[in-house]
Write the structure tokens for this entry.
Amino acid sequence: MGSKDPRIDAYIEKSADFAKPILRHIRKVVHAALPEVDEDLKWRMPAFMYKGILCGMAAFKSHCTFGFWKGSLLTDGKPNADAMGQFGRIESLSDLPSDKTLAALVKRAAKLNDDGVKVAKMAPQGPRKPLRIPSYLSAALKKNKQALVAFKEFPYSHKKEYVEWLTEAKTDATRQKRLETAIGWIAERKARNWKYM
């Protein structure tokens, strides 16, 4: 028999009011379809475990997401551009597939885990483009030796996340605020998305 995790109860209670019925419903359907499922937190989000990660859900400011770990084997294999998971932005219960459809997907996902099926790894995409560090980031890093050393030691992906976050700012004020936050986090050797790791 599976288990429920009180941390998931707490996660749901802290979620926005619109999200609570969505998360409770997903949880209910997953447990009904697969009574052996266990709950856990992965990347600070609710996850359902059955011989490995089965599926997970999350709540954000204005939408929820739900997806299967091996979702590409359960759907057409195309990632959803609107949100993580296979169902896009879920803003109300009506955005979810029917309970019957969800339960069938849960059972198919469990069968994949039973059979030890692995998702094919993505093929390398060729050489990386050189990362262009904005001058304002370089200048700020030079003023904080701890951040400079940490940034130099970061893998390419961590550096890229910070550069994109800063360059996507729409105003100078936003960029400056993000830059101050980034330097603090980098000095602490935190990746841009450290809260979700």
Q: What stands out?
A: The beta strands are 38-42, 45-49, 53-59, 64-68.
